[in-house]
Amino acid sequence: MKKRRLNIKEFASRLGISTATVSRAFGTKGRISEKTRRMIISKSESLGYRANYHARNLITRKSHVVAFFYPPLIKGEPDYFISEIMFGVSGATSLNANPLQVHPLYPESMDFCKDVILNGSISGIIVTAGTAESAELVKTARNAALPCVVIGHMSGENNCAVTFDNSRGAMLAGKYFKDTGRKCPAYIGGIFDRRKREGFKAGFGPHASNILFDNGGSTFQDGFSSCERVLKAAPETDCVLCANDILAIGFIKAALSKGCKVPGDIAVIGFDDIKIAKYFSPALTTVRLHLDEIGEKSVNLLKRIMDGGKNVSGESIDCELIVRDSA
Amino acid sequence: MKKRRLNIKEFASRLGISTATVSRAFGTKGRISEKTRRMIISKSESLGYRANYHARNLITRKSHVVAFFYPPLIKGEPDYFISEIMFGVSGATSLNANPLQVHPLYPESMDFCKDVILNGSISGIIVTAGTAESAELVKTARNAALPCVVIGHMSGENNCAVTFDNSRGAMLAGKYFKDTGRKCPAYIGGIFDRRKREGFKAGFGPHASNILFDNGGSTFQDGFSSCERVLKAAPETDCVLCANDILAIGFIKAALSKGCKVPGDIAVIGFDDIKIAKYFSPALTTVRLHLDEIGEKSVNLLKRIMDGGKNVSGESIDCELIVRDSA
DNA sequence: TAATTATGCGTAAACAGTTACGCAATCTGG
DNA sequence: CCAGATTGCGTAACTGTTTACGCATAATTA
C-alpha cells in the first residue's frame, strides 16, 4: 500500500495540461511561454513533483555523473596524495552539479568497475594513472566511447590527461640544493619516479653524476629504511630528494633518530606538498603540485569532452618549490 | 550515424529467444533452466550485451547507489578526519558492489544535494553530523523514506547512527594524565566537543575542577594560538587534551617553538588517530576512533536498512588510547 | 493411465520520462 | 487584409528493462 511518488502524468493531469508541457517547463528544449513555465515550477514545488532520474536518463541517454577511479590504498598508511586530489575533483563536480562517484581500483573490483563504465550509468570518468588496472580501465572506456581523462602519465594511446611536470619539479629541487651549497645528493623513489630522478640530476648539475639512487618504494617505512641504508652506504650524503612527502617524513624521522640534524647535517625535500607538509616538524620543504587544482582541471577537461568538445588536449600542472624548514 | 548499443530486444532476437528469458538469465527472479542461463551469459559476453542501468532501475525502483555527504572543508587545511572515514566507506561499498557518490555539503550546494536524494537516483545515504545542512538533509531523507545513517551525534529524531564514545575516549586521556602524575590539565576544543571536555574532567578526577578550557576551534592555527594563550594564562599547565589531532599538532608546534619540551614540560594527547599521527614528531599519543571502521560500519548498517531491516539500531565505535611519544 | 504439479519460456503491460510532429492561434510584413 | 512565419501546446511514439500471467510440456503422483 506504499503510495507511489507523483509522476509526470498524474502531475500534468492535476494541472490540466499535457506531460509534454510539464517536461518542457524543466528542460531547455521545446517552446513554452514563460508564464506557464513559472506556473508549473511553482506547482511542482507545492505538490512535490520531481522528474524521475532514471526515466529521464533512459530517454536522454546521459546521466551527467562522473566517476573517479583511484589506485589501491595501503592499509594503515596515509593516502593524502589521493584524498587531496579527490576532494579537488569533488569540489569541482559539485560546482557543476555533476554527481560524483568514487571507486577504488583493486584487481578484485575490476569487474565491478568495468560494469560501472559499461552499463550506461555514467557520462565520464577520471582515472589516476600508474597501475595495470587503470590502464585497462581506460582502454575499456575508450572502446565504449566514454569521455575519459587520466591524471598522470599513462603510456599507450594518446588520451586526454592532466599531468604534472615531475621532471621540472625535481630539477627545481636539485638546483636549490646546488645553490645552497650542498655537495652530495641522494634520491629516494620508486621505479615509477624515474623522471624525477633525471630532473633532479639535471638540476643539480655536473656533480650529480655520483648521485645516490635508492629504489625506495613510497611509504613512511620505505623512507625510514632508505635513510638507514643511505647513511650507511654514503654517510657523506648531505641532501636528499624524496619522491613524495610521506617518504620524506619517514626519512627525516629516521635521520633525527640517528642524531642527524635536519637540515643541518642533511637537507631533505619532499614532493607533492600535501597539506600536512607545512605542519610537520621540521616544516617540509617540498615541490608543490597543486593537488586540488589537479582535481579541478581534470573535471573541467572532462566537462569539455562531455559537452562534445572534439580533440580536447591535455594540460600540465606546473609545480613550484616551497621552501620551508627541512631544506 | 552513431550505432546504438545492443539492447535486450535485439540481443534476444539474435539468440532466437524472448526478452523475458534474457532478463531472467541475469536476475534472481523467475524460473530458467541452468542450461539456457549459461548459454545466455556466454553469448552476452561474446556479443557485448549488458543490461541498461537506467531502464533496469526505472522498473525496479532501486539503484543500489549510496551517497556520502561530508561537511565543508577549510581551504588549505588537512581534512584527514573526513578523508579517512570516506575511504572506509568507499572500500566497504566497493566490496558490496554498491556505487558510491560523494557530495560536499556546502550551503550553496544544498539544492543540488536535496535533488540528489529526491530524484530517485540513490538508494541510501550516509551523512556526517555537525552542521545545520546535514541536519536538514537528514530530515529531507526521512520525509522521502530514504534509508539513512548518520555518523556522529545528531540531535532531534532518533535516526540510525554510528557514534563514537567521545566521552569515554576523553576520559581515558584524563585518567592517563592523572596516572602519569600530571597536575595541571587543560582542554582545547570547539563548542561541539563538550562531551570530550566532560569526559576528560571525569577521567582526571577531583583535581580537574580547575581544568583550563580553551574554546579552541579545530584547525592547526587554532591549536597553535591556543597554546600561546594557555601558556600565558596558566604557565603551570603540564598536560593538554586536544579535540583532534591537527589541533594537537598545532599545539605541539607552538609549544616547541616556545622552548617547551613535549612531553617533558607539557604532555599532549590528540583525538581521532588520523594516519599521520604515528608519523608526526613527536609521535602523537591520541585517542583512536578507528576511522576506517566507522566507514565500514556505516555502510553495513545502511545496507541492513536498505535490505528492508526494520528498526535497525545504531552502533557505537569504541575508542582506545594509543600511547606514543607526545604523552 | 489419468490427474496433478512443476518447469521453462513467451506475450504484453508496466516503469516515467522526452521530443518529433502537427495543429490552432497569434503575430508580422507587404 | 492576407500570406507566411512564429508561438504554445497536445498526441503519440519512443527509451530498455522487469515481471505477472498464461500456456505448453515434462515430471510426479494416485
Within the CATH hierarchy, at the fold level, what is the topology of the largest domain in chain A?
Rossmann fold
* N/C terminus separation of chain A: 70 Å
Query: Which architecture of the largest domain in chain A would the CATH scheme give at its second level?
Result: 3-Layer(aba) Sandwich
Mean pLDDT of chain A: 92
> Regions of chain A with pLDDT < 50 over 5+ consecutive residues?
none
Beta-strand fraction estimate of chain A: 15-25%
Outline of chain A, from the CA principal axes? elongated
Strand order, largest beta sheet of chain A:
2-1-3-4-5-11
Alpha-carbon Rg of chain A, integer: 26 Å
Strand segment tally of chain A: 12
Class by alpha and beta content of chain A: alpha/beta
Q: Show the largest interface.
A: A-B, 52 and 52 residues
Plain-language structure description:
The structure is a homodimer of 327-residue chains. In chain A, helix 7 (132-143) links the parallel strand 3 and strand 4 (148-151). Chain A folds into 3 domains: 8-51, 434 Repressor (Amino-terminal Domain), CATH 1.10.260; 66-164 and 291-317, 3-Layer(aba) Sandwich (Rossmann fold); 166-288, Rossmann fold, CATH 3.40.50.2300. The first copy, chain A, is α/β, with parallel strands linked by helices and 327 residues long. In chain A, the strands form 2 sheets. A 6-stranded parallel sheet of chain A has the order 2-1-3-4-5-11, with helices on both faces. Chain A has 12 helices and 12 strands. The interface between A and B is large, with 52 and 52 residues. The structure holds a DNA duplex (30 and 30 nucleotides).
